[in-house]
Design goal:
By secondary structure, the protein is an alpha+beta fold. The protein has helices spanning 2-49, 157-161, 278-282; strands at 54-67, 73-86, 91-100, 111-122, 127-135, 168-179, 182-189, 215-222, 228-237, 250-261, 264-275, 287-298, 303-313, 324-336, 339-349, 359-367. It folds into 2 domains: 1-52; 54-367, Porin, CATH 2.40.160.10. Helices cover 16% and strands 48% of the residues. The protein has a 16-stranded antiparallel beta barrel with strand order 1-2-3-4-5-6-7-8-9-10-11-12-13-14-15-16. The radius of gyration is 31 Å and the shape is globular. The N and C termini lie far apart (90 Å).
Length: 368
């Protein structure tokens, strides 16, 4: 009897043990699956964390120009993407990549450009060191030129031909605040290179740029009064021909004022070059200067009107008639603060041997 009882108990225990073992296996399997899910989540979070601090932005603009003595044109003038990365609280990267005129390549009208690629090192709360390829701190539009931020379809001709925006160089600089409302910049960079002493044509765009002679740029900006900006930039280039003409040192002085209050706006700017040497003097390009004044009125959040008078001369060093002037009047309409539609009329007065281009410009632009 006793042996039979033991056999009976064994017969019950074996399936029970198997059942318990199966339950344990299911529990272990559930634990392993949960751990695997946690591992996958950790992997995902780790991958995402590498992208933290990455920002994408950009802007673009489409122009239609109907001007006298030129074929009517429609042009997607610029398509630009910004990429930035915060490596840490003190180290920041910024870049600007641009396609001009919609299509680039051999025989095409457009070009691909890297306009900015630099790193800012925050040395203190108020002072930074910058190195890489960056925009020269001069004028109003050179650093801030997104279409919704300015009036007129085309960028003004003074900053285009005299400054010459958009203008970037490669090098190193420091910038920051001296006190609340007073900021500064100082840069040592590559410089212009043109043996005809033409400013805009001298931009090397940091593409295998000749760097026999550097440029030194300093700016101060005052913004202590709400709505008012006053700024001045001085630049010295030891040689704007990079040694072709040993005497061709050059200096640029630029000053501007921006005022906005209760819908009324005013921009005024002066910029002038002095280029040394007999070569520049013989071509009248030892002096090159220009100015503009632009009053505007923001009727409401969506509608604004403006007028602008521009005058510039890239050969002001001689007695020849070489000054251009242009009057622009127009309207900006913002259906959204980051989207703008523009229409304006331009009336040019040109040197006697040149052809006027009067007419209408239409534009669409955006930023994000």
């Amino acid at each position: 009897m006793k042996n039979r009882a033991l056999l009976a108990l064994a017969g019950l225990a074996i399936p029970l043990a198997v059942t318990v073992a199966d339950d344990d296996i299911d529990e272990i399997r559930a634990i392993l699956e949960s751990q695997q899910d946690q591992i996958e989540l950790l992997k995902k979070n780790t991958s995402s964390s590498t992208n933290q601090g990455v920002n994408i932005g950009g802007y673009g603009e489409l122009h239609y120009n109907k001007l006298s003595n030129k074929e009517d044109q429609i042009d997607f003038h610029r398509f630009v993407l910004f990429f930035s990365k915060d490596f840490s609280d003190k180290v920041h990267f910024f870049s600007e990549f641009e396609l001009e005129h919609a299509i680039a390549g051999e025989g095409q009208t457009g070009e691909v450009e890297l306009e900015q690629a630099y790193v800012d090192f925050n040395v203190t709360d108020n002072h930074n060191i910058r190195t890489g390829l960056f925009l020269v701190p001069v004028g109003i539009l050179n650093e801030t030129h997104e279409p919704p931020t300015f009036y007129g379809t085309e960028r003004n001709p003074v900053e285009k031909n005299i400054i010459p925006a958009t203008w970037w160089e490669g090098g190193v600089g420091v910038n920051g605040q001296l006190m609340p409302g007073l900021s500064y910049d100082f840069n040592v960079t590559s410089g212009l290179n043109n043996d005809e002493y033409k400013i805009r044509s001298g931009r090397q765009k940091v593409g295998n740029a000749v760097a026999e002679n550097f440029a030194y740029t300093g700016r101060v900006k005052w913004t202590s009064i709400p709505g008012l900006e006053l700024a001045a930039t001085a630049q010295l280039q030891t040689n704007i021909t990079q040694g072709t003409d040993d005497d061709a040192s050059a200096s640029l002085i630029e000053a501007h004022a921006i005022y906005n209050m209760d819908g009324f706006g005013l921009r005024a700017l002066y910029a002038g070059w002095n280029v040394n040497g007999d070569g520049a003097k013989a071509k009248g390009r030892d002096e090159q200067n220009g100015y503009y004044i632009e009053p505007s009125y923001r009727v409401n959040q969506q509608l604004g009107v403006f007028a602008r008078y521009n005058a510039w001369d890239n050969a002001a060093g001689d007695d020849a008639d070489s000054e251009y002037s242009q009057i622009d009047v127009g309207i900006n309409y913002w259906p959204h603060e980051d989207v703008v539609l523009k229409v304006d009329y331009q009336d040019q007065t040109v040197p006697s041997d040149k052809t006027e281009n009067d007419g209408v410009n239409l534009g669409f632009g955006y930023q994000f």
